[in-house]
Amino acid sequence: MKIDRDLDVTKNIKIIEWLKTEILSSVSALYEIMLKGASYTDETIQDILANIIMVTYLLGKRLGFSFTNIDKKIKEKIVRAINDDHKVEKWYGDLSELKDYVKLRE
Questions:
Q1: Which of 32, 36, 46, 94 is the most buried (most CB within 10 A)?
Q2: Could you tell me which Pfam families the record lists for this protein (predicted)?
């Protein structure tokens, strides 16, 4: 059984490395598209943002965190940022809007 366990560990390390690379590639693609002046409503930008979020959840899972725990941390960070009067909240109210959106998903 030691061989199976070693194979699982190796496989997990490989997927973690792939996920990290995927996040970096997606962030790079986002910067590149934004640099070229693509519209912020562009389907490509939405696709890249969705990919970053999805891959981040998968990386968290591979690192031993449940999707539920990641969501809990997101909620905590939103509330903390609102309480700290984050500029995004102060100027646009985006964090309150995100908090309401996350609450609706429950």
A1: 94
A2: MazG-like
